[in-house]
Amino acid sequence: MKNFIEEVTWRGMLHDVMPGTEEHLMEQMRVAYVGIDPTADSLHIGHLVGVMLLKHFQLAGHKPLALVGGATGMIGDPSGKSNERNLLDEPTLRHNQEAIKGQLARFLDFTSNAANAAELVNNYDWMKNFSFLDFIRDVGKHITVNYMMAKDSVKKRLSSEAAEGMSFTEFTYQLVQGYDFLHLYREKNCTLQMGGSDQWGNITTGTELVRRIASGKAYALTCPLITKADGTKFGKSEGGNIWLDSARTSPYKFYQYWLNTSDVDAEKYIKIFTFLSKEEIEILTEKHREAPHLRLLQKRLAEETTVMVHSAEDLENAIKASNILFGNSTSDDLKQLDEATFLDVFDGVPQAEISRNEIEAGINIVDVLNEKTGFLKSNGEARRALTANSISVNKEKVTEDFVLSSKDLINNQFVLLQSGKKNYFVVRVV
């Protein structure tokens, strides 16, 4: 047995843990679970800490359970939220569950014959036939309202500052989550629940139900909620969540998110979001501190996370795409970009539309630069720039006699204009 608590402690992934947990885990193989909200058909990087906890748990020789909260997802966890969530129907939940399992399989071993192979469970399966009367009789009577009201997540929602208050549905959330723990304790011999620090109240309600109903002993462990040094929310970009699904967040954008991490955050994140050893991280951190301008930590962090979530090929393409703006890339590099990556790379770059008929007929470059796009202010300015050899089409220098035609299209849809080193303009063919 590897010491799981020791591992997550040096990685900065331990916020709170119930006394006796470390000793309990060192005795023999144990079973633990983390709950995952199935409100979308993809995880985002906010989920990654819980997934990494499960992976470290499995690497330490224990058995991880990933619980997709089909039932709890229908209610809505009040922890840290100000509003109730939208309720999902069963077909949507099942679709989301399958998509999430596919992503988790990149991290956890679900398929081997090992005793500690991971399992995916859905609390909807054991809650859907549990009648309301049975639930309040068999579960509700064991936990007092006073106990439930004392939880921070409930207190915050009932405070005078909370405009919305709290529905009975959300108030019962901790009982439903607590019952999950009891069910998994009975059915899977699960003795540990892990989650974010805002889940401590819900998790300990579960340990209490195990004690009161099953006369058993269960344990709780939480990790810190991940923050950014500048105070902005971790896992969010201007476009919203950073998703693990490449159709929602391209590997290029995913790579860029980690690459743009601050020095302070990179030192913290490389321990949490990679499986690099303590020695490797210490050496890397030391080198980074000696030459922070080289961004060694950020580059390694971006590389490790991109390969882990996507693939080595996606990493290579993300690096190539990054070099298009900042390196000596070629027209061929540009033409290898798929549409989503192309648009991500040139997000925010001015654009203009030209009809396909005009492109097929051929347009003189001076007209393209001025009249058709407004990239340059006049024909005179366009000619001067061309004479000075500072205009490129798709990364290749052009002269005044160049004619833009359909053979120049990237993905049969785009043309990239460039004036000097840093001024870009995208032509979209419609």
In words, what does this structure look like?
There is one protein chain. The chain has helices at about 5-10, 20-25, 50-60, 70-75, 90-105, 125, 130-140, 145-150, 150-160, 170, 175-190, 200-215, 250-260, 265-270, 280-290, 295-310, 310-325, 330-335, 340-345, 355-360, 365-370, 380-385; strands spanning about 15, 30-35, 65-70, 120, 190-195, 220-225, 235, 240, 350-355, 365, 390-395, 395, 405, 415-420, 425-430. A 6-stranded mixed sheet has the order 1-6-5-2-3-4, sandwiched between helices. The chain has a 5-stranded mixed sheet with strand order 9-15-14-11-12. A two-stranded antiparallel sheet has the order 7-8. It folds into 3 domains: about 5-225, Rossmann fold; about 235-325, Tyrosyl-Transfer RNA Synthetase, CATH 1.10.240; about 345-430, Roll (Structural Genomics Hypothetical 15.5 Kd Protein In mrcA-pckA Intergenic Region, Chain A). The model has no long low-confidence stretch (mean pLDDT about 90). The chain has 22 helices and 15 strands. By secondary structure, it is α/β, with parallel strands linked by helices. About 45% of the residues lie in helices and about 15% in strands.
Strand fraction equals 5-15%
Q: Helicity, in percent?
A: 40-55%
Give the count of helical stretches.
Answer: 22
CATH class of the largest domain: Alpha Beta
- Distance from first to last alpha carbon: 61 Å
